[in-house]
């Protein structure tokens, strides 16, 4: 950059021959005394070295010579003032370049260095070159640092030392030497030119903002050094860093033109700090919706408390994205879990509240809760220390009125639990490399449409994605890989869970999960679960299996479609029911359609769909299991694909409604479950009562409740020939209520096809 070239600015003072009225003997300001007519100054027409020059006798303690023209001082512009001088007679003085700094309105700018290095003249007639560089920035080679406040200067020389000496002075020259300091002269604005000092202490906020204001599309350069920024700044032009920044936790660096992780890592020189600062800016700057990690691996020494990092808001509703990189949990004690055992009181009339909680100040929001009567995936949603109360994410089913609970706080790479509410946040193409040190994501306590897509959740220590409240409402988990660290663990020894959901309307689609204790625990309704593949066998060849998915609410209102359920099963429970006995609700509104269920190395008792009622009077109303494939491998066939787990209670078969179990495919399954079931009932000898047992066919051991069709195959014959009367049916016979009888008006023999149901079908 050269302002004389680019902007046509003339920095060179008028020659002495144009008149000494332009040369001040004071400071160069208007009205100051000049050398025009002075007795100690005269023009020499033809000096052998200088040609026309000024001869001047030193008569003052500091003899000033200042050009009265205003030489502009521009941020980022560096001027070299140069003069040739020689001693003629008398005492030889010392000489220096000097100037007067002028600010807005013509006032003097104090506090800047207005004199250059001093050179002593040592020999009569010897020509000495005296020079100094003046500029705004503290740079090597700059003799007079003026900062940004001066906008012009009156430049010249000072003579110091003994009086009486005579010198001759060649015309003073001033040239733009900015190019000496700027390597890319036309497209860079250097913050050092605006007064930035890389000492790690000086507040450079205003210098950075001033450089940004002048950049006008050019890049901003932060040279080597450590620059302290005390407050939030926004850089509206592109910026590049050779040096690094230091900022308070609550000060935000907002990069408008090149907002990505690489720039923040360049800015702070530490990838963990850079990630925090980039996330902070993402949530506080409206011009960017996504933070791109640029494919980088970001090593984290401990959990990222996203709410704490942002620091200035408790809720957030604008779509934001973190994408394209890896978060890597480094091995250290910051990931260690916190465990508190404390007594508390529980009342089923306040089903999600613990009261009289001891040691409550030690219990953290987001803690996992365990204890008698606590179902799977119950967490601390809120802590009210003043009232010794805890709000739970789910109700308890048979907790004692007073008992001990264990509160375990897992540590997460991304912890959003500090937010009261968050909506439309997206995590895209991130590998959560937990390394068995950390869990992956803890959701906000409330909110909607948290979206995790195309991510890897690799080796989470305890959990993949955790909901401790309703921040999972409408959650979408799409095309993710959940990879457990427990690949080589026996099934019975596994403790990790891929994800859990408390609120409604989850979309769990096209994911793959390997060898967790459970892939998912879902407690909300209105879910779409499709295209997932999860498998949970082990290398030991044990026959133990755990639930691949747990549906932990009765009125599930969900579809489970096109999934691959491999060496695990679906468990449907009501384990979060505080008053489960005869509560008037049913297991219902679930469609299981078009899935592949497969297993190997299991025992005959293994099954793929299990209903586990908590409390008496539980029943099924609204279940469709259609178009699925059930296939076994290995030496043992299984008996059935479905069962009731009766740890706490049986199903009440007398209340079953709208249960369809049809059009499924079975391989290596001994009993083909159907409802309605179409069977052949026949007699080779005459009898008035024909009986059949449906126990091998009807799902969940439910009773044979209705015969909905009887069609003869060929004639039904009595002693006198064909019989054309129809029988009446009796149902729910036998000790298991699985038998029916067809009762004829006379003893007959023959064959009929009979349709039997275990439920009350939809009435029309």
TrEMBL record:
Residue ranges annotated for the Rhamnogalacturonase A/B/Epimerase-like pectate lyase domain, each copy included: 189-245
Source domain of life: Bacteria
First and last residue of the signal peptide: none
Protein's recorded name: Rhamnogalacturonase A/B/Epimerase-like pectate lyase domain-containing protein
Organism: Paramylibacter ulvae
């Amino acid at each position: 950059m050269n302002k004389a070239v680019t902007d046509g600015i003339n920095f060179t003072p008028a020659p002495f021959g144009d008149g000494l009225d332009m040369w001040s003997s004071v400071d160069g300001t208007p009205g100051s005394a000049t050398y025009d007519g002075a007795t100690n100054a005269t023009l020499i027409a033809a000096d052998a070295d200088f040609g026309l020059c000024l001869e001047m006798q030193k008569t003052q303690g500091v003899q000033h010579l200042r050009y009265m023209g205003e030489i502009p001082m521009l941020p980022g512009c560096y001027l070299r003032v140069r003069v040739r001088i020689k001693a003629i007679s008398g005492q030889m003085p010392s000489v220096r370049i000097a100037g007067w700094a002028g600010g807005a309105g013509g006032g003097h700018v104090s506090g800047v260095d207005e004199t250059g290095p001093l050179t002593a003249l040592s020999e009569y007639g010897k020509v000495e070159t005296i020079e100094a560089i003046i500029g705004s920035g503290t740079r090597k080679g700059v003799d007079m640092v003026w900062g940004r406040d001066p906008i012009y200067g009156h430049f010249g020389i000072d003579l110091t030392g003994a009086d009486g000496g005579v010198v001759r002075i060649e015309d003073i020259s001033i040239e733009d030497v900015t190019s000496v300091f700027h390597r890319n002269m036309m497209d860079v604005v250097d913050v050092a030119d605006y007064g930035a000092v890389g000492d790690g202490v000086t507040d450079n906020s205003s210098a950075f903002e001033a450089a940004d204001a002048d950049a006008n599309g050019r890049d901003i350069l932060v040279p080597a050094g450590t620059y302290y920024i005390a407050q939030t700044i926004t850089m509206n032009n592109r910026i590049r860093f050779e040096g690094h920044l230091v900022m308070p936790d609550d000060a935000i660096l907002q990069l408008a033109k090149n907002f990505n992780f690489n720039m923040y890592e360049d800015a702070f020189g530490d990838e963990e700090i850079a990630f925090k600062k980039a996330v902070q800016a993402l949530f506080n700057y409206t011009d960017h919706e996504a933070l791109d990690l640029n494919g980088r691996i970001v090593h984290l020494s401990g959990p990222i408390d996203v709410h704490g990092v942002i620091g200035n808001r408790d809720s957030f509703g604008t779509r934001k994205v973190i994408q394209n990189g890896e978060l890597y949990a480094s091995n250290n004690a910051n990931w260690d879990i916190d465990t508190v055992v404390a007594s508390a009181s529980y009342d089923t009339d306040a089903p999600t509240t613990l009261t009289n909680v001891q040691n409550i100040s030690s219990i953290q929001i987001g803690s996992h809760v365990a204890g008698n009567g606590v179902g799977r995936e119950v967490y601390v949603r809120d802590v009210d220390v003043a009232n010794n109360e805890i709000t739970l994410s789910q109700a308890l089913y048979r907790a004692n009125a007073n008992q001990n609970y264990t509160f375990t706080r897992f540590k997460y790479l991304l912890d959003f639990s500090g937010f009261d509410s968050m909506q439309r946040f997206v995590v895209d193409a991130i590998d959560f490399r937990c390394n068995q040190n950390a869990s992956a994501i803890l959701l906000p306590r409330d909110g909607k449409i948290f979206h995790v897509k195309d991510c890897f959740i690799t080796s989470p220590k305890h959990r993949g994605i955790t909901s401790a409240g309703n921040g999972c409402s409408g959650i979408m988990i799409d095309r993710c890989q959940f990879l457990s660290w427990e690949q080589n663990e026996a099934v019975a020894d596994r403790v990790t869970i891929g994800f859990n959901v408390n609120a409604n309307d989850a979309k769990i689609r096209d994911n793959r999960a390997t060898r967790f204790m459970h892939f998912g625990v879902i407690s909300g309704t209105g879910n779409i679960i499709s295209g997932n593949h999860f498998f949970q066998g082990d290398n030991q060849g044990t026959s133990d299996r755990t639930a691949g998915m747990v549906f932990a609410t009765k009125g599930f209102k969900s579809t489970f479609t096109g999934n691959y359920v491999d060496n695990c099963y679906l468990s449907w429970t009501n384990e979060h029911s505080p008053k489960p006995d005869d509560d008037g609700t049913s297991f219902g509104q679930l469609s299981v359609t078009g899935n592949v269920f497969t297993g190997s190395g299991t025992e005959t008792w293994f099954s793929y769909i299990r209903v586990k009622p908590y409390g008496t009077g539980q029943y099924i109303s609204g279940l469709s299991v259609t178009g699925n494939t059930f296939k076994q491998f290995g030496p043992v066939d299984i008996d059935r694909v479905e069962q009731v787990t009766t740890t706490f209670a049986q199903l009440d078969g007398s209340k079953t409604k709208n249960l369809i179990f049809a059009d499924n495919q079975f391989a290596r399954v001994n009993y083909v479950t159907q409802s309605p079931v179409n069977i052949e009932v026949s007699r080779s000898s005459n009898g008035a009562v024909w009986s059949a047992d449906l126990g091998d066919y009807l799902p969940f051991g439910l009773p044979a409740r209705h015969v909905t069709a009887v069609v003869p195959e060929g004639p039904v014959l009595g002693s006198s020939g064909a019989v054309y009367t129809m029988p009446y049916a009796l149902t729910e016979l036998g000790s298991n209520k699985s038998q029916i009888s067809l009762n004829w008006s006379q003893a007959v023999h023959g064959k009929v096809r009979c349709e039997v149901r275990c439920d009350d079908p939809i009435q029309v």
